[in-house]
Amino acid sequence: MGNFDFVRQTLPSLHDDCARAESYLSSDPRSACFYSRRVVEELVGYLYDVLSLPIPYRDDLAAKINDAAFKAEVPQGITQKMTAIRRIANTAVHESRTIRPDVSLAVLRELFNVVVWTSYHHSPAPTVVPLQAQFDPAFAAKAAPLSREEVARLAAKFKEQDEAHARELAEKDERLAAHQAEIAELKTQIAAAQAAAAPDTRDYDEAAARDLFIDVLLHEAGWALDEERDREYPVTGMPNAEGTGFVDYVLWGADGLPLAVVEAKRTAKSPEVGQQQAKLYADCLEKQYGRRPVIFYTNGYEHRVWDDAGGYPPREIQGFYTRDELELIIQRRQTKLLLSSAQANTDIAGRPYQVRAIKAVGDAFDRKQPEALLVMATGSGKTRTTIALVDLLQKANWAKRVLFLADRTALVNQAANAFKQHLPGSTTVNLVTEKAVEGRVYVSTYPTMMNLINEVDGGLRRFGPGYFDLIVIDEAHRSVYAKYGAIFDYFDSLLVGLTATPKDEVDHNTYRLFHLEDGVPTDNYPLDEAVDAGYLVPPKGISVGTQFLRSGIKYDDLTEEEKDQWDALDWGEDGPPDEVGTEEINRFLFNEDTVDKVLETLMVQGYKVASGDRLGKTIVFAKSQKHAEFIEKRFNLAYPELAGHFARVITHGTPYAQSLIDDFSMKDKAPHIAISVDMLDTGIDVPEVVNLVFFKMVRSKSKFWQMIGRGTRLCPDLFEPGEDKKDFLVFDFCGNLEFFSQDLPGSQGQVQKSLSERLFEARVGLITALGDDEPDLHRSTASTLHEIVAGMNLDNFVVRPHRRAVERYGSAEAWTELSPADTEALFRLAGLPSSVRDDDEDAKRFDLLILRRQLAQLDGDMALAERVRETVQHIAAALLGKTTIPSVAQQAVLPGVRRWRPVVGGRQPANAGGSSTEVAQSGSVHRKDHSQPRLHRLRGHHR
Fold first, then answer.
1. CA torsion sign, 889 to 895 to 900 to 906?
2. Are 251 and 260 in contact (CB under 8 A)?
3. How many Cβ atoms sit within 10 Å of the Cβ of residue 519?
4. Using one digit for the tens of pLDDT, what is the confidence trace for 626-682?
5. Is 622 helix (H, G, I), strand (E, B) or coil?
6. 838 falls in which pLDDT band (50, 70, 90)?
7. Which of 94, 259, 489, 886 has the fewest CB atoms within 10 Å of its CB?
């Protein structure tokens, strides 16, 4: 006979492990705890099945127990018992520390409670459950003990079996169908049994277990509790008849003085019941020892910490402080400086709004408000502001250790590098790559930190609730809390959130987390202010309507509950939910004509650099890896002459993606178009970016603003010397601007003619003006133009609409005699891409200068001709000071050059164009002498 015999009928798959846990109670406490955890793991999985609960973001026991949907179905007392069993059993499996028999007995008692509750409420046989029975250790058998190594091997074996079973269900349709049918039948049986069941009258409270779980948490914080004075410590001066009392726990410092008191109340009561009693105990100890201890009070499951001497009200905490942490709290009562009067390091963050933001956070912390939210436009220096704040907090003795959290490894690496650069005296630890290093600033992704919280080393928790003094959330928004809110619940620290989402669009849940009024962050520096002050540049929208806007639904039209659900979804590469019409969207996104039209719009209207001859740095936000690869393929078909370097896919699935990002970040180096899926949505800072292409639906407001922020950085001399970046273009093909109600200032895109276009038109103008004169010059210029047109790819989506003209002038015969109609048609070809290219921008500018001189002379505009002549002379004179350059020295003397001659202003072969030129003081057209040195020898040297 055993305590769990009833489980054969209620939850038969759990019975064997329940019996094993019970059998090891007296002979092997470690194995009893291990099998108890195994039962809880199986039981939680069972509940997820019969309650039809979605698996949370992370498929492990801790995440499942703490998931909001699970907690909504299972009483708090039961989930807390499950958590306690899990934590104690983890120690049993992974640590060599001895497990006491009283610990395993408490675990079995709690397991009995959990199994009774589940059997009574969620099994097909509630009538057989011994509702009023208590766990009786006398029934426990005595099994042969297992070593710790054997327990660890069993744990690994069970984990492997569970993963294999999960794979089988996922991969084998027939097994999944059978499993689902079994669950459906079980649900029917449970519903029928529960309809007839009587109310649950069992008392699930256990005071002894409460004390045990408090012991476990104290042990994890390094408190051995092995001295008589640690428990039931007598004090005098209590306001009762005897004037005495007994403190449940006293935590002592190395100097023999009390650091903290812990008052424990029954689990059925609120921990607040013990607040006044704990305060009175602290009064007694302060009077006796001359130092006021920190106050803890708890019911075993919920805990409160109260540093009233430090001026803080009570707050919830998920464990206890270590000795070092408590000593630091007490020491700071005298050593902390007022932040409002401290000066931030302006060498790190010295812009007025950054100094103001740091002061606003300092003021909030001085007022005992432990949370702050900074709304700062992307590109305004959130990270540097944060670093300067951390520096201030460290110098003012507010923060010893700081945690900076971001949602991607690339952002963590970027933050780590920034901290190392600006705070070299504070050791920065990147927890993604450095697991065992100690430091003062820690940077991590959210998933990495979630895993590290659960780590216990030598029975001690590495990152206890009091380990960090400040946590910084990079890009704080509701989806972060939905997935990783347990991190902020766990750590007891100051909290600073950073977001680029405009303050009026930050959701109410974010303001609630920071205990702020909606729309009133701790400090706000919006994009428009940053633009007006000259720190950032604004976006201009080019919204291209498609048939795939989100059918009349806008984000602002959703209810708050719908917004919560919408933002909690992981859109990622999977795109919108099924009801949006995934199949239809895929047909649109993967349609060749659609992609070509998007690329054509970008290549024609997008901002250009290099005197308008090259598309500026561009990010294309694609829907998925396949979509990104498809866009790259279509681009390369249209521009084969760019040899596959100009546009590249940069995603998490791209090998050596960081090297591509490094290349993209260099002003004049390919790739110039980065086609990305999520990877470049945030965190990449390339000031040269002037075009953003939204080729996917974005339904997260915070992500939308992060993506917009990729273009806001300033970039001096981007287009040419003295011509800075003033704004950037947002090409929206999927209705994102409409969805988020963003009416950006409109733009026609690139309107200025490129240098190559102006050269082409000037050459057409030259041969038209020459007529039958200067046949050699006419012929060489026409040959240059013919080669450019012949190099135009008819498969290119920009060239394709001009097919008739390209085919006509791609023939040499068409250039023998040009009519005014031909000239007009050729002007329309001037800006089309060609494989015949000259990438020497300075040399092309010189060519255009000479062509302007020739045209001015032919048109009789002697004033212009004279100005150009002076410009050329200045260039030549400047070159005479650079004769140490061999190629300049070779052309230092141009013998026999006396007069200007009309020339195409280029070099042979024909893609550069032209004939020789003679230079003289006069501006008259004179004979051409091919034996004379040529002015185009200066070409390319004058820069």
1. negative
2. yes
3. 14
4. 899 999 999 999 999 888 999 999 988 888 888 898 899 999 999 999 999 888 877
5. coil
6. confident
7. 886
Write the single-letter amino acid at 405: L
Two tokens at 252?
Answer: 């002592």
**CA dihedral defined by 476, 480, 486, 490, rounded to 10 degrees?**
-20
Q: What are phi and psi of 691, to 5 degrees?
A: -135, 130
Closest CA to 671 of 636, 709, 713: 636
Chain centre distance of CA 469:
23
Region of 168 on the Ramachandran plot (φ > 0 left; ψ -120 to 50 alpha; else beta): alpha
Report phi then psi at 546, rounded to 5: -135, 170
Q: Which of 427, 354, 425, 416 is nearest to 386 (CA)?
A: 354
Q: What is the mean pLDDT of the chain?
A: 82
Looking at the DSSP bridge assignments, the partners of residue 678 are: none
Residue of 256, 209, 232, 3 whose CA lies nearest to 104: 209
Among 196-205, 399-408, 424-433, 825-834, the minimum mean pLDDT is found in 196-205
Enter the DSSP assignment of 341.
G
CA-based nearest residue to 718, from 606, 586, 607: 607
Take residue 695 and report the two structure tokens written for it. 């080729």
Report pLDDT digits (tens) over 34-68.
Answer: 899 999 999 999 999 999 998 886 778 888 898 88
What pLDDT was estimated at residue 312? 92
CA distance 581 to 421: 48
CA-based nearest residue to 846, from 938, 780, 763, 750 = 938
**What order of strands is seen across the sheet that includes strand 441-445?**
428-430, 441-445, 402-406, 470-473, 494-499, 371-376, 523-525
Q: How many CB atoms lie within 10 A of CB 246?
A: 11
Nearest-angstrom CA–CA distance, 819 and 313? 89
Helices 478-490 & 446-453 angle (0-180, nearest 10): 30
Print burial letters for 585-609: b (CB count within 10 Å at least 16), e (below 16).
Answer: beebbeeeebbbebbbbbbebbbbb
pLDDT attached to residue 121: 94
Biggest alpha carbon–alpha carbon distance for the chain: 125
Q: How far apart are CA 11 and CA 43, in angstroms?
A: 9
CA distance readout (Å), 208 to 105, 106, 215, 738: 10, 7, 11, 60
Question: Which burial class, exposed, middle or buried, applies to 419 when counting CB atoms under 10 A from its CB (0-12, 13-18, 19+)?
Answer: buried
Tokens of 515: 């205990």
The pTM for the full model equals 0.69
Residues 940 and 847 sit within 8 Å (Cβ to Cβ): no
Distance CA 404, CA 476 (A): 12
- Please state, in angstroms and rounded to a whole number, the distance separating the CA atoms of residues 230 and 198: 45
User: According to the model, what pLDDT value does residue 169 have?
Assistant: 61
Calculate the alpha carbon distances from 363 to 357, 499, 797 in Å. Answer: 10, 19, 58
Q: Which residue has the tokens 């609630």?
A: 512
CA 451 → CA 38, 60, 239, 446, 471, distances in Å? 20, 11, 46, 9, 17
Number of H-type helices and E-type strands within the chain: 33, 23
d(CA 608, CA 755): 11
Distances (CA, A) of 832 to 618, 719, 790: 19, 20, 11
Residues 6+ apart with CB under 8 A from 747: 540, 541, 542, 727, 729
Mean pLDDT computed over 777-801: 86
CA distance 227 to 617: 68
Distance CA 615, CA 673 (A): 8
Specify whether the CB–CB gap between 913 and 784 falls below 8 A.
yes
